[in-house]
Amino acid sequence: MEREEMNRMTAREVLESEKFMEKMRSVMELEVAGLRTAAMEARRMGARISRTPLDSLRERGVWVPEQMVELYMAVICKALIGFSSSERRYIRLVGMEAYRLTLLWMKEHN
Question: What pTM does this model have?
Answer without folding.
Answer: 0.87
